[in-house]
UniProtKB/TrEMBL annotation:
<dbReference type="GO" id="GO:0005840">
    <property type="term" value="C:ribosome"/>
</dbReference>
<dbReference type="GO" id="GO:0003723">
    <property type="term" value="F:RNA binding"/>
</dbReference>
<protein>
    <submittedName>
        <fullName>Small subunit ribosomal protein S20e</fullName>
    </submittedName>
</protein>
<feature type="domain" description="Small ribosomal subunit protein uS10">
    <location>
        <begin position="18"/>
        <end position="57"/>
    </location>
</feature>
<dbReference type="GO" id="GO:0003735">
    <property type="term" value="F:structural constituent of ribosome"/>
</dbReference>
<keyword id="KW-0689">Ribosomal protein</keyword>
<dbReference type="InterPro" id="IPR018268">
    <property type="entry name" value="Ribosomal_uS10_CS"/>
</dbReference>
<dbReference type="InterPro" id="IPR001848">
    <property type="entry name" value="Ribosomal_uS10"/>
</dbReference>
<comment type="similarity">
    <text>Belongs to the universal ribosomal protein uS10 family.</text>
</comment>
<keyword id="KW-0687">Ribonucleoprotein</keyword>
<dbReference type="InterPro" id="IPR036838">
    <property type="entry name" value="Ribosomal_uS10_dom_sf"/>
</dbReference>
<dbReference type="Pfam" id="PF00338">
    <property type="entry name" value="Ribosomal_S10"/>
</dbReference>
<dbReference type="GO" id="GO:0006412">
    <property type="term" value="P:translation"/>
</dbReference>
<dbReference type="InterPro" id="IPR027486">
    <property type="entry name" value="Ribosomal_uS10_dom"/>
</dbReference>
<dbReference type="GO" id="GO:1990904">
    <property type="term" value="C:ribonucleoprotein complex"/>
</dbReference>
Length: 66
C-alpha cells in the first residue's frame, strides 16, 4: 500500500517568509538551516530551499588593449 504524504497546513492568509543568513562559518550555517527546515516541516509548512549564494568575487578590470 502506498503511503500518503502529510497534508500541508492551509493558513487563513498566505504569508511568505524569506530568511537570509550570512556567515564566514559554513558549518554553522548548514546546521542552522537544517534546523529551520526541520522545524518548519514538523509544522507541515511548505519549504523551499536552502538556496546557496555565490561566494566567488568577480573582478571586472577594464584594461586597455595597448
Amino acid at each position: 500500500m502506498a503511503e500518503k504524504k502529510p497534508e500541508l497546513a492551509q493558513p487563513s492568509s498566505r504569508n511568505w517568509v524569506r530568511v537570509t543568513l550570512t556567515s564566514a562559518n559554513i558549518k554553522s550555517l548548514e546546521t542552522v538551516s537544517t534546523d529551520l527546515i526541520k522545524r518548519a516541516k514538523d509544522q507541515n509548512l511548505r519549504v523551499k530551499g536552502p538556496v546557496r549564494m555565490p561566494t566567488k568575487v568577480f573582478w571586472n578590470l577594464n584594461s586597455s588593449l595597448c
